[in-house]
Amino acid sequence: MGEAEGDGLVHRIAGGWREAPLSPADRALCDYASKLTGKQTVMTEADLDRLRGEGLSDRAIHDAVQVIAFFNYITRIADGLGVQPETFIRKWGLDE
């Protein structure tokens, strides 16, 4: 996959991962991340089993949960403190 093609995929995922051309494993992982972010109190063993069924090892699941949790944590810290994005970071989707 070339750089431009990769950038296009990233934009399609960020714009709506449910419609993006993802592998079944990537789709399951995005679904898991979405649920862990917004409905964490209803996570069950079945959520893990789906990831395992797509070939993710327990180590890969652990690593994914660490990344998902970190992003949730740091976003809540920034939102809670009213942190504004840096001015040198261009808005998502805008050309240079």
Describe it for me?
By secondary structure, this protein is mainly α. It has a single domain (23-96), classed as AhpD-like (Up-down Bundle). It is built from four helices and no strands. It has helices at residues 3-16, 24-38, 45-53, 58-81. α2 packs antiparallel against α3 and α2 (24-38) packs across α4 (58-81). The chain is globular, with a radius of gyration of 16 Å. The model has no long low-confidence stretch (mean pLDDT 88).
Provide a short characterization of the protein structure.
With 96 residues, the chain is mostly helical. The protein contains four helices and no strands.
By DSSP (H or I, 4+ residues per run), the number of helices equals 4
The helix content, as a percent range, equals: 55-70%
Q: How much beta, percentage-wise?
A: under 5%
Distance between the termini: 22 Å
Q: State the CATH class.
A: Mainly Alpha
Largest sheet: none
- What radius of gyration results from the CA coordinates? 16 Å
Low-confidence blocks of residues = none
Based on helices, strands and strand pairing, what is the structural class? Answer: mainly alpha
Overall number of strands: 0
How confident is the prediction overall: mean pLDDT? 88
CATH architecture: Up-down Bundle
